[in-house]
Write a structure and sequence with these properties.
The structure is a single chain. This protein has 6 helices and 2 strands; from the N terminus they run H-H-H-H-H-E-E-H. It is mostly helical and 183 residues long. The chain has one domain: Up-down Bundle (Four Helix Bundle (Hemerythrin (Met), subunit A)). Strands 1-2 form a two-stranded antiparallel sheet.
């Protein structure tokens, strides 16, 4: 049985998957790649950025879970996360308070086909759901995950799930603004 916290993360990633399917339903290439203005991202770029960052996060989460299982870092919630984790999550989640430039390694390319980006992004959501299931029984506060920001900066496993979901919601809101501008 999933803990309440893991169930909430599962719900968030499943919701992100559903919102993405709604966002991209019926979009042809030109609309998927349309930029609303100079220096603004298209729907494609929002999803590509999330895919690049999410793939990095998934690899880090998989490693952390494997190491935690080997070390026996089990626990039952509710979990309390460090102040730094809570700060990073607050800065990441929508509504956007401060625009932050994407690190070079997470900058999307432009002009990718909808048939490449959308299935890859949806697959990424499935990977997050698998890792959430694998995390059952672990101490979500004690298990440490390297962050995409720096290998030296670590977050708790629960904090990383929350941050990844918040980051995805942030850019999905951005993509929805583009979709509404298309109309």
């Amino acid at each position: 049985m999933e803990t309440r916290e893991l169930e909430e993360y599962r719900r968030q990633f499943a919701g992100i998957r559903q919102r993405t399917e709604e966002l991209t339903a019926g979009l042809e290439e030109s609309r998927f790649n349309w930029r609303p203005g100079a220096g603004q991202w298209s729907i494609e770029e929002c999803l590509h950025h999330l895919t690049i960052a999410g793939q990095w996060e998934i690899r880090a989460i998989e490693r952390a879970i494997e190491q935690a299982r080997a070390r026996g870092l089990t626990g039952a919630g509710p979990f309390r996360y460090p102040a730094l984790d809570r700060f990073i999550i607050r800065q990441t989640q929508p509504p956007v308070r401060h625009k932050l430039p994407a690190p070079r390694k997470f900058r999307p390319s432009h002009g990718n086909p909808v048939t490449a980006i959308v299935p890859t992004f949806l697959h990424l959501q499935d990977q997050f759901l698998r890792q959430i299931a694998r995390a059952e029984g672990l101490d979500l506060a004690r298990v440490q995950v390297a962050t995409p920001i720096s290998g030296l900066l670590k977050m708790s496993l629960g904090g990383m799930f929350a941050q990844a979901a918040a980051h995805e919601r942030r850019h999905l809101e951005q993509a929805w603004r583009v979709r509404r501008a298309l109309a």
